[in-house]
Amino acid sequence: MTLRSLSRRATVLSVALAGTLAVTACGAANETDTAGSDSGNSTAPQLSGDLVGAGSSAQQAAMQAWQAGFNSEQPGVNFSYDPVGSGGGREQFLAGGVDFAGSDAALTDDELTTAANRCGKAGVFELPNYVSAIAVVYNLEGVKDLNLSPATVAGIFNGSIATWNDPAIAADNPGAQLPSTAITPVHRADKSGTTKNFTDYLSQAAGDVWTAGAVEEWPTPGGEAGNGTSGVISSVSNGQGIIGYADESQAGDLGIAKIKVGEDFVAPSPEAAAAVVANSDRVEGRGEHDLAISVNRTTTSADEYPVVLVSYHIGCVQYDDQAKADAVKAFEAYVISKDGQAAAAKAAGSSPITDDARGQAQKVVDAITAG
Predict the structure, then answer these.
(1) Residue 64 backbone class (left: φ over 0; alpha: ψ -120 to 50; beta: rest)
(2) For residue 24, with 0-12 CB atoms within 10 Å meaning exposed, 13-18 middle and 19 or more buried, which class applies?
(3) What are phi and psi of 290, to 5 degrees?
(4) DSSP secondary-structure letter at 299?
(5) What's the rounded Cα separation, in Å, for the pair 7 and 79?
(6) What is the pLDDT of residues 182-207, one digit of tens each?
(7) End-to-end CA distance of the chain
(8) Among 302, 284, 304, which Cα is nearest to 294's?
(9) How many other C-beta atoms can be found within 10 angstroms of the C-beta atom of residue 282?
(10) What is the pLDDT of residues 69-93, one digit of tens each?
(11) Radius of gyration over alpha carbons of the chain, in Å?
(12) How far apart are CA 283 and CA 271, in angstroms?
């Protein structure tokens, strides 16, 4: 099954942003009693207790927006989220330490086995509710525009391309004045879904250069390491000739490279990120409530940007405690709603999911219960 309706993202975004403005202006007065509708529900039963999540630092800005919107509807729920990184979040969830995980990578087969032990026969849900481009960010004085082919990106990050005037970079940027400055690549120090998505792209698009595979922990020596998305951005910002990878929403004033797709160089954007996901398939062989996506990294369409992460919320379909199940269900209903997605787009520049994707996600949310 594909999510091709995401290609209508431009329309969705304009509608979603309009929804955000309406919420800002009118607040809870416009809320309805449908969990998957445009807004939350001021007349729904008021919940209480704790709701604890951990994981993706790429989701941090979106999570702050989701927390604010959710708590405006459910002020009695004590919500917290620790952006420890995708790997840390999944580990905590599988160990029973948090109620849900935010992860920039779906569960592995081994993790699915552990999740079955944690969640029981009802199984685990994986909701792809945050779609965002991964930007190749750089800090190089005098170079405002930078084009990079997949093989060049792979060579930079495996250390085989060591200076900015290397012939490979020059070939991607004919006529550009490139300095002889040494290149310092920065990678994530922590176990990271962003790293998994980035190395998955390198492995698929430039596998003859990048031979280390798709991994969550950086596999090659050299360069510098930063903890979390903020650590990578800080490292790139603090020196000349430095390059890294991070969620586009966190790039700030850093340079952002265009990546070669087919015969064109494509800049990261919410539209291009959504388009490549629209032409990607569901991972086969997973459970009814597992909506994991296999991203098409080798697209040749100039409308698509393949260095993208699809970030998930991962939780149990059935919880032991009714209050916990109700809190998770209400939170995820807000996250996938038009207002929740618009809030994330405004805060983080992410691509709101489409009505088709929302319908699929709503079926999963409706299934969350207590046993």
Answers:
(1) alpha
(2) exposed
(3) -105, 110
(4) -
(5) 33
(6) 999 999 999 888 999 999 999 999 99
(7) 30
(8) 284
(9) 16
(10) 999 999 999 999 999 999 999 999 9
(11) 20
(12) 22
% of residues, the chain, pLDDT over 70: 88
Structure token pair of residue 130: 């945050």
| Contact predicate 343/63, CB 8 Å | no
Q: How far apart are CA 34 and CA 290, in angstroms?
A: 23
Which residue from 191, 185, 198 is spatially nearest to 224, judged by alpha carbons?
A: 185
Query: Which residues pair with residue 187 across a beta bridge?
Result: 225
Place of tokens 């087969």: 109
pLDDT in tens, 18-30: 333 333 333 333 3
- The SS3 of residue 104 is coil
Helix ranges (DSSP H) in 179-227: 193-205
- Give residue 203's identity as a one-letter amino acid code: S
pTM for the predicted model, two decimal places: 0.76
What are the CA-CA distances from residue 74 to residues 4, 31, 148 (Å)?
A: 33, 12, 46
Q: Kind and range of the H or E element at 21?
A: helix 9-26
**Identity (one letter) of the amino acid at 146?**
L
The kind and range of the H/E element at 313 are strand 308-316
pLDDT tens sequence across 104-152: 889 999 999 999 999 999 999 999 999 999 999 999 999 999 999 999 9
315 sits in which H/E element? strand 308-316
Comparing 35-49, 110-124, 181-195, 215-229, which segment has the lowest mean pLDDT?
35-49
